Structure formats: structure tokens, C-alpha cells
Amino acid sequence: MPPIKAVRGVRDILPAEARRWQRVEAAARQTFEAYGYRDIRLPLFERTELFARGIGDETDIVKKEMYTFADRSGESVTLRPEATASVLRAYIEHGFHVQPKPVRLYTLGPMFRYERPQAGRYRQFHQANVEALGETHPALDAEVIAMLLDFFGALGLADRLELHVNSIGDAGTRQAYVAQLREYLTPVQDRLCDECRVRLTRNPLRVLDCKTPHCQPIIEKAPSILDSLSPEAARHFESVRQCLDTMKIRYVVNARLVRGLDYYVRTTFEVLTGELGAQNAVAGGGRYDGLIHQLGGPADPGIGFAIGMERVVLLLGEDDRPPAPLALLIPIGEPALRRLMPVARALRRARLAVELAYGDRKLPRELEHADRIGARFAVIVGDSELERDQCILRDMRTREQRGVPLERLAIELAPGQAHDES
Ligand code: ATP
Ligand code: MG
Q1: What is the pLDDT of residues 390-401, one digit of tens each?
Q2: Does 386 sit in the ligand 1 pocket, CB within 6 Å?
Q3: What is the pTM of this model?
Q4: φ and ψ at 418, to 5 degrees?
Q5: Are 198 and 228 in contact (CB under 8 A)?
Q6: What Rg value do the Cα atoms of the chain yield, rounded?
Q7: pLDDT at 172
Q8: Whose CA is nearest to atom 6 of ligand 1?
Q9: Where are the beta strands (DSSP E) in 228-326?
């Protein structure tokens, strides 16, 4: 029988890579928590209508990327393609709006999108998601962006990334810009890609987000959305930029940065890399005042971002060395094994990573094994050591060895560390 393989576009994260994931997740949690964000854990699937309403019917995600199915009772459910809609659903459902504002939440976990798999693009992928809810002040926009950069800084990636910011104005005044854009694009639509021609009729703003090379010269000459901002939106953006400046954050103002989701207003931003080919966006976000109301909640504003964790892990490279135990404990024979079992347990409880052999192989083979697994020390107990409740502590690098009472083993293995004698 042929073995069964994983589903296309879905990948295993093997132990060597998982170490890098742990670093990335720890950096996210530490950074977000320092800024006052709290962890919220949400279901991986929701009623389909949540995403249809919360992301927008005209988006690529809702139109062609969702994993939607009827459950056994016939209800349509969808594996979440992004987290914001779920966070807002929970915010409304649990009455978070009565808490002091802004309500700061973050969540880490897998997302599902039916896309064409390639390097840095998968059908199950992971995001770190952050949302700050209930506050419109532009200083919050700048603070959220600063936190995003601090996350990358914590991983030593800051110098390899570029921050782009834009304002796409308010829903009301954007209409005028969209009309202007449509007027500009209609005469040249024959030179746009097929998809952009469809976007032109349905959602012209999305043309600005197109990655197709031959659309770029047209996009570059398009009117700038920044020229059509309302005075309030323009002031907001100016203030965001001043706040970024006071924090000495470098950024590029990119008037083409509209983002793929329908719900954004005012500030949008992305963190880009030149190192991952077409998958150049490592994180993106923006303000979405009005979305909570649209989902049936209070008229609370919000801002957030999502980090693409696979792409961050790719940027970290592949320098993982398998973790080596501090020591291999080698009993020679059954009585020595039984003496070493509680010793091994005590060492592990003191957070010393040790391995215990089974006492059924010859010493030279066990020493070979200690070398292969990269153990720093071998701890050998044969009959004569057992009689004196001692062991032989062998340094695997220098091959020096000496007798040590078993009760002193923890201290000898890890001198600087506090040990509980019990
Ligand atoms: P892209 O332009 O790359 O499709 P997007 O605008 O669809 O990105 P968002 O919805 O803004 O992406 O999600 C935030 C981040 O999640 C992206 O910047 C990216 O790093 C990551 N991401 C999105 N889709 C995928 C995917 N299919 N596989 C891996 N990472 C992804
Ligand atoms: Mg996408």
C-alpha cells in the first residue's frame, strides 16, 4: 500500500525548524505583552457569514480562498482565513467594549487559504495577530507600528526590512478617489491584466495592489489617494507620521499601499523584505474603524496587524543545531539502571537535559552513542561504582574522567546552578 502524504500546500514543521518557531513565538509574546496586549485564543472555524461580512464579498479571500463546508447539520462553516473577524466577534460576544480602552488583544495560530502553494505561501499558514480596539488617536497607530517593528528587532531582523505606510482615507471620501481612479484606468484597461480588468468594475482600489509586472507602469502613474484625503484623514495621517518621527522610526510613504481587505480606513502599513521573491510582505495591517459596528457591535474603532510567521521563520535562516543533552547516564547492568532512574529524574526536574541508557549494551557502544547525540558528559555506573554510590564522570571532549559521589552529580554537571537537594 502506498503511504499517505500530507495535503498539498500544507506542511509539517519538523523539530529542527520548530526551535526557530519557538523563538519567533516567544519574541511575539514578550513584545506584545510589554505593550499591554493579552492573549486570546479563538476557534479555528466560524460561521461562514462572519467572514463574508467581516472581510468583504469582493475580496480575493472571500471570493476564492476560503475553506468552506457544510457540517453534518448543514450549517455552513469556514476555516478561518484571518483572525481579525474572529477577534471582533469575540469582542462583541463577550462585551469587551465595557473594559478600559483601548482593549489590547493578540493571538497566534494557523490560518487557512486556498491559494497556489509556493515558497512562503501555503494553504495552512500561521499568523501573529494584534488588535487594539476602542481608540481613534493617531498615537495608537504609531504605537502599534512601533510594536510591530520591535518584534522584528527582538529577532535581529530590523535592518533587513522596510516599513511602508499610507492612508487610504475614510469610507465616505474614498468614493471620490475611486471614481477618479476608475476614470484614469478605464481608457487604459486593455493594458491591464485579466484580473485587474475585473477589479476595475468591482473594486478599482484593488488594482493598486496588483503584483503583475505589466500593470506596474499604469499603477505608478495613477492619481495618488493621498491627494484626495479629507482634512480630518490628512491630519490623522500627518499626526501618525509625526509620532513615528519622534520615535525615530524610518518608513516609506507608499500611496499604492491599499491592502487586500475591504475594511481598512485611514492608516495602512506593511513590512516588506527583498529576500523572499514575490512573497515580499512579512506583515501588514491598518485601521478599521466601523468594522465592529458592521459586525453588529458598538461603533468602536480598531487597528491591528498580522505577521506571516512562515515568512519570518524563513528570514531567520537554517542555523538550527539539534539540541544536545548535557549528559548520557550509562548504567552497566540492571541494578545500576535502577539506581540511575531516580537520579535521572532528579536531574531533569532540575532542568538538566540528560539521557539515560538501558544498561544492556557494552560501555564502548554507549560511549559512541554519547558522541553521536553530542552529550557533553558521560556518567558511568558499573558494579564497583554502585557499591560506593558513585559514578565516573567523563568529559566527552577531553576524555578526562574522575569519580564523583552520585549525590554531588547535579552540582558537578551544572556548577553555577542552584540545586534542590531533595
Ligand atoms: P499576500 O499579498 O502575500 O497574499 P495578504 O495581503 O493576502 O498577503 P494578509 O491577509 O495581510 O496577507 O496577511 C498578513 C500576512 O500573512 C502577510 O503579510 C503574509 O506575510 C502572511 N500570509 C498571507 N497569506 C499567506 C499564505 N498563504 N501563506 C503564508 N503566509 C501568508
Ligand atoms: Mg493574499
Answers
A1: 999 999 999 999
A2: no
A3: 0.92
A4: -75, 135
A5: no
A6: 28
A7: 80
A8: 260
A9: 252-253, 265-272, 281-287, 302-308
Rounded to 5 degrees, φ, ψ at 297 are -105, -170
Q: For residue 392, report the distance from its CA to the centre of ligand 1, in Å.
A: 55
Is any ligand 1 atom within 6 A of the Cβ of residue 125?
yes
Could you give the angle at the alpha carbon of 265 between the alpha carbons of 270 and 261, nearest 5°? 60
DSSP-assigned states of every residue in 178-210: HHHHHHHHGGGGGGS-HHHHHHHHH-GGGGGG-
Q: Which three cell numbers stand for residue 195?
A: 484580473
Could you say which DSSP state residue 121 is in? B
Non-local CB neighbours of 52 within 8 Å, separated by 6+ positions: 62
Which tens digit of pLDDT belongs to each residue from 16-38?
A: 899 999 999 999 999 999 999 99
> How many C-alpha atoms does 18 have within 13 Å on its Cβ side?
7
The Å distance, Cα 65 to ligand 2 centre, comes to 9
Tell me the one-letter amino acid at 270: E
Q: Name the band, by pLDDT with cuts 50, 70 and 90, for residue 422.
A: very low
pLDDT, tens digit, 9 for 90 and up, residues 309-360: 999 999 998 866 778 999 999 999 999 999 999 999 999 999 999 999 999 9
Relative to the CA of 120, which ligand 1 atom is closest? Answer: 29
Contact 279, 248 (CB under 8 A): no
Higher pLDDT, 172 or 409: 409
Contacts of 409 (CB under 8 A, 6+ apart): 343, 347, 379, 391, 393
Question: 223 is written with which cell numbers?
Answer: 492619481
pLDDT band at 381 (very low <50, low <70, confident <90, very high): very high
Spatial CB neighbours of 312, under 8 Å, sequence gap ≥ 6: 24, 152, 155, 157, 282
Q: Is the CB of 283 under 6 A from ligand 1?
A: yes
Coil vs helix vs strand at 114? coil
Query: Helices (DSSP H) in 350-417: which residue ranges?
Result: 363-372, 383-387, 409-413
